[in-house]
Amino acid sequence: MFQLPADCLNEIFEHLENEKFTLHSCMLVNRYWCGVSVRIFWRNVRNYNTSNFSTLIACLPITSKEILYNNGIFISTPTLKTPTFNYASFCKVLSVNRVYYKIEKLLENQQNISPQSLKNYTPVVAQEIFQMFMKEISSLRSLSFYSYPDMTFNIYFIGAKDCLKNLTELCCSSDISTEIFYQLSQTCYNIQSLTIGFERTITDGIADLISVQRNLKSFDIMLCHGLRVDEQTNIIFSSLMSKIPNTLIKLNVYGRNNYFSLPFIANLSNLQKLKLSFDNNKYFVNFEKLQYTIFPQLQILKIPEKYPINGLLIKFLENNGKNLKEIYIGENKFNCDNSLNLAIAKFCPNLKKISVGIYYYELETLKIIFNNCKDLESIKIWCGGKYFLTEKEALEAFANYSQNTYELILYYQSKELFESPLHPEELESFFIKWTDRKPQKSLSLVVVNYNIYSLNTNDKNIEIINKYIKLGIVKKFKVTDFNDEECDIIS
Fold first, then answer.
1. Fewer CB within a 10 Å sphere, N or C end of the chain?
2. Chain segment 212-227, per-residue pLDDT in tens
3. Distance CA 347, CA 341 (A)
4. pLDDT above 50: residue 87
5. How far apart are CA 427 and CA 403, in angstroms?
6. Does the CA dihedral 181-182-187-190 come out positive or negative?
7. Which stretch of DSSP H or E encloses residue 313?
8. What does the pLDDT look like over 88-145, one tens digit per residue?
9. What is the structure's pLDDT at 181?
């Protein structure tokens, strides 16, 4: 029987990295398939279920098993023999919290123990598992660890220098011990993606870790609810942010009930993507200083919730809009004029993707956007809610005014029972207009909603859509909700 070479199988299985059930099935085909797919399945600890941790227990060295036995911890394993593979060595993506949680579940399932015993046993098992990981993993790619009750991280990274030397992705919280940040700063110089959740405590060692990075590309700053922002915290933040290397090309800042000083962003002249996500306009502290900064490489601007008052943001677009390829602007309940949308049309002529809120009386502005942004490929239009824009109006404007745009995402902010639904005749009329366009392009239509009143709830509408899919007029039709990341056209 013809057998694909291992490198071909590996190339195929690589595309299944996030399909854990499919990968598991591949391991059961035969020894040959198992030998190739097992390495990919065990690469990411988030793929592991509780039984996988039983297998890891079987992989522990004799000294670790003796430690468990001496502590009265007895865990049944799939086999008493030496496992076929060194599973721990395959791990490249390690989540400390995920491992700790799964060990708790493993102990709960296998032993009738009290909550106090579970609290005592879990760190003992976790210590032996992590020490095995640190010894067996030759080069860890991604590491994440966040605060967890009764979990001490220091003991988990003993002997981890070789394992962590090629780490490229790190996700952690700011209240981890200084010793761990110090150890990471002595070992990890090539982190490319860094995510820090800033909690109540901000450990001093974070600055050391940031300052030694040689190739940091992406930084996610998450300002958590417990963070108390005062003058002292702002001083600490300013010191931390001054350490960010100018290699950074992607910056995401998330804040909930948090002030955050933004001027440090002006020093990041190589930024290509900037995302500022705050739930209140007033949290854009010092944006007036940022509005005059020019970012020559900036291509993606994403402000998905509240945004600075229009004058500041318009000035920012005047200075940076020409290079933008994608823009996502959220809602601002304090401002109902269309000056920002007109500014987008004027200062951002090279956009390929856009998400905007268009009021029902602003359809002429939408026409201006289509006329000025000749390269626009995808647009997300918010329907319903305060915009009072119906599906019919959005579809008609898209059919009449768009030129090279071939993807329409209808984003339902809300829809009430009294709002007029889209009739099948209106949908048919839209597709007829689209079919008559020159040049003719296949349409991608995405509906994003959380209610039952959007166009897809009418069976006749679905029949019409299926008809045009068969005719090749519609390339893709998808219905999704707000939790689906794919619905966000700016990933």
1. N
2. 999 999 999 988 776 7
3. 10
4. yes
5. 19
6. positive
7. helix 310-320
8. 999 999 999 899 889 988 888 876 777 787 888 888 998 899 989 988 998 999 999 8
9. 86
- Amino acid identity, position 460: K
**Cβ atoms within 10 Å of 171's Cβ, excluding its own:** 19
Local structure of 295: helix, strand or coil: coil
d(CA 217, CA 213) in angstroms, rounded, equals: 10
Residue identified by tokens 């700790």 is 100
Which of residues 452 and 458 earns the better pLDDT score?
A: 458
How many angstroms separate the CA atoms of 252 and 217, rounded?
A: 12
Q: Which residues of 431-464 are buried (b: 16+ CB within 10 A; e: fewer)?
A: beebeeeeeebebbbbbbbeeebbbbebeebbeb
Higher pLDDT, 366 or 255: 366
Length of the chain (residues): 491
Q: Which residues are CB-contacts of 10 (< 8 A; sequence separation ≥ 6)? A: 36, 40
DSSP-derived secondary structure letter, 478: E
| Residue in the block written with tokens 């854009």 | 284
Confidence band of 15 (pLDDT split at 50, 70, 90): low
Q: What pLDDT was estimated at residue 378?
A: 95
Helix, coil or strand: residue 480: strand
Q: How far apart are CA 472 and CA 435, in angstroms?
A: 10
C-alpha–C-alpha distance, residues 259 and 254, integer Å = 11
Query: Rg of the Cα trace of the chain?
Result: 27
Question: Tens of pLDDT along 293-329?
Answer: 999 999 999 998 877 776 888 999 999 999 999 999 8
Distance of CA 242 to the CA centre of its chain: 25
What residues contact residue 121 under an 8 Å CB cut-off, 6+ apart?
71, 72, 73, 107, 111, 113
Q: Which residue has the higher pLDDT, 484 or 205?
A: 205
Amino acid residing at 148: Y
Q: Over 90: is that where the pLDDT of 352 sits? A: yes
Beta bridge partners of 94: 143
CA distances from 185 to 152, 169, 202, 344 (A): 19, 14, 16, 42
Residue in 242, 280, 283, 238 with CA at minimum distance from that of residue 260: 283
Q: Work out the end-to-end distance of the chain between its first and last CA atoms, rounded to an integer number of angstroms.
A: 44
DSSP string, 431-474: HHHHHT-SS---EEEEEE-SSS-SGGGSHHHHHHHHHHHHTTSE
* Per-residue pLDDT at 487: 40
